[in-house]
Write a structure and sequence with these properties.
The chain has 277 residues and is mostly helical. It has one domain: de novo design (two linked rop proteins) (Up-down Bundle), CATH 1.20.1440. It has 8 helices and no strands.
Length: 277
């Protein structure tokens, strides 16, 4: 960001509302429907387990987190945060490490919960909630960055928020391009903003005769990119948080209705006994 020069809703800010529903980013119920299809022998291609004689398998399909939209968006938040911190936060500060680790935790706990769901729905629910809490921590860090720097936090109805959501960015580069576009439009520029990804400068700042006015202008651009980048990250975090909220609710309902591994084990054993001569 600041062109995110290396690879870069929130219920409180309005992102868990209608915008999130229009993005095409949908929250998943859990692991069902996201795994590779069974082969002809009924074997789960990833885990090597299948239904026996058409009965309920002891260990259900699990570990399909890479297909979860919540995982994909949390991973994007992580990529964006790494760039943001490297560009705008002192690498020697605790804040830098804490923000990166909070973003990483959001990704890793979704994956771990998905993988653990085969034998523990309770653990899946717990870890998915940890992922949600990590993103909430990260959201507060971005808001602190804006407040302490005297930078503006986008209002829920800000058109820039809606424009970013509508773009459905899938990579950090796409988010960076969106931030650059918002910056240029806000300054009435046609794309020739003097930036080429080299720390927000055009590589000519060392030339003799550069005026103090020009230096001040570059600092203003830097500050503007920091503000836009932080707000863009908050939009992504909000959408990811909204997805995880729905995912957690669905997991809790499924656990209540179907039980966990212990109940599945009991049903499987009972089914086997009834099938014995």
């Amino acid at each position: 960001m600041d062109r995110m020069d290396r690879n870069g809703r929130n219920g409180q800010n309005g992102d868990s509302g209608p915008d999130a529903g229009r993005t095409g980013w949908r929250a998943e119920r859990g692991e069902g429907g996201v795994m590779d299809r069974m082969d002809r022998n009924g074997q789960d291609k990833q885990n090597g387990r299948g239904k026996l004689d058409g009965r309920e398998p002891l260990i259900p399909k699990h570990g399909g987190y890479r297909n979860l939209k919540s995982f994909q968006l949390a991973q994007l938040v992580y990529d964006v945060t790494v760039r943001f911190c490297d560009r705008f936060v002192d690498k020697r500060s605790r804040t830098h490490d804490q923000m990166v680790q909070a973003a990483r935790s959001g990704v890793q706990n979704i994956a771990e919960g998905s993988q653990a769901s085969g034998t523990s729905k309770k653990m899946e629910l717990k870890l998915t909630n940890v992922a949600r809490a990590s993103l909430e921590e990260l959201r507060l860090d971005y808001e602190d960055f804006l407040r302490q720097g005297g930078l503006a936090l986008w209002e829920p109805a800000d058109p820039r928020r809606k424009a970013l959501v509508a773009r459905r960015c899938a990579t950090a580069d796409e988010v960076a391009a969106s931030v650059k576009q918002i910056h240029e439009r806000g300054n009435g520029q046609d794309g020739q903003d003097g930036l080429d990804g080299q720390d927000g400068l055009d590589g000519q700042e060392g030339q003799k005769g550069q005026s103090m006015k020009s230096i001040s202008s570059m600092k203003s651009i830097q500050s503007n990119y920091a503000e836009l980048s932080a707000n863009a990250a908050l939009v992504l975090i909000g959408v990811a948080g909204s997805m995880l909220d729905r995912q957690i609710a669905a997991q809790a309902k499924a656990f209540e209705n179907e039980g966990g591994f212990t109940e599945r084990l009991y049903r499987t054993r009972q089914s086997r006994r009834k099938g014995q001569p």
